[in-house]
Write a sequence for this structure.
């Protein structure tokens, strides 16, 4: 099989993460045996999927003499929190462009954690944020330049052609996991929020997993948006790295986005999602989050009910982390 040639990488995540079968869950709920890839265990302050991307993004920053990184996301962004901690650990300056108004009270959850790092933060109401994001990035890059610091813009979610490497590499890990567990799963599923995890999994599946099917369950936007986003991330990756492609690669590769579980919108969780989180936590002792992994896992349960996977199947759910996102929901969960 063709193997990719990796760019520089720094070690930030605790790897390999475990792959664990939800046996009690299957006994209770029926359906396929779900194996959870515990990427919520990539770290403590660095928990979640963004750390895998940051191993490549921040290696790129250091290698190219950037002294600062700038990134963006919602106030409760896991990616922004992970970037702030990783940058601080590496002695890089960082700035977070946060979508929303600065809360009048004490900051909460991820935002609270951001304030404990060396990162600087700025707040932008959604209308301004969506309209001017590129301009805000440019302004911040200029501000650093005036201080004589070269600053790297990392897009929302770390989803670009560099970040994509994180989940290409994760597929190599999954290949070993499947061998160790002697399983031949039918599909890998993950929550999709900015597309980079799924883009990496799709490429990585071609390199390491015999084109095993990858499904993203979107937690915002819609199927068309993600198909387009993932295609453009993969195209940018191809262009930048110019290297052998997976054997069955085609520009027309199928991108499986399971749409229909966004609910009331990004960051909003239904009672059903919260009930699923509680049920998994009380059955298996694994904590999902209401914004991403819990929403996707609840969506997966619906898909199983509809017959997409059966009792004979092994399937893999990537636990992408996000547990700090539970804190703002404590009252509704309690
Ligand atoms: C960002 C995030 C995702 C989505 O990953 P993308 O690569 O942005 O699609 C899923 N789960 C959690 C917990 C996240 O923070």
């Amino acid at each position: 099989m063709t193997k990719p040639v990796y760019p520089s990488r720094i070690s930030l995540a605790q790897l390999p993460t475990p792959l664990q079968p939800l046996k009690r869950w299957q006994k209770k709920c029926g359906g396929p045996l779900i194996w959870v890839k515990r990427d919520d265990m990539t770290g403590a302050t660095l928990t979640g999927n963004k750390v895998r991307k940051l191993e490549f993004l921040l290696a790129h920053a250091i290698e190219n003499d950037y002294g600062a990184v700038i990134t963006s996301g919602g106030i409760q962004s896991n990616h922004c929190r992970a970037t702030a901690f990783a940058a601080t650990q590496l002695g890089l300056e960082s700035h977070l462009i946060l979508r929303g108004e600065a809360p009048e009270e004490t900051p909460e959850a991820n935002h609270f954690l951001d304030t404990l790092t060396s990162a600087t933060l700025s707040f932008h109401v959604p209308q301004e944020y969506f309209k001017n994001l590129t301009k805000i990035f440019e302004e911040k890059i200029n501000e650093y330049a005036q201080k004589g610091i070269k600053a790297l813009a990392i897009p929302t979610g770390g989803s670009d052609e560099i970040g994509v490497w994180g989940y290409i590499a994760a597929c190599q890990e999954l290949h070993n996991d499947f061998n160790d567990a002697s399983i031949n799963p039918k599909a890998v599923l993950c929550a999709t929020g900015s597309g980079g995890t799924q883009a990496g999994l799709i490429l990585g599946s071609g390199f390491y997993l015999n084109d095993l099917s990858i499904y993203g369950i979107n937690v915002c936007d819609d199927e068309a948006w993600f198909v387009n986003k993932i295609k453009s991330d993969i195209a940018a990756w191809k262009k930048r790295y110019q290297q052998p492609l997976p054997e069955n690669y085609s520009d027309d590769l199928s991108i499986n986005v399971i749409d229909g579980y966004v609910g009331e919108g990004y960051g909003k969780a239904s009672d059903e999602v919260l009930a699923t989180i509680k049920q998994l936590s009380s059955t298996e002792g694994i904590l999902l989050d209401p914004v991403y992994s819990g929403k996707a896992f609840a969506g997966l349960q619906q898909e199983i009910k509809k017959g997409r996977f059966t009792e004979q199947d092994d399937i893999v759910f990537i636990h992408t982390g996000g547990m700090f996102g539970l804190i703002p929901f404590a009252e509704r969960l309690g």
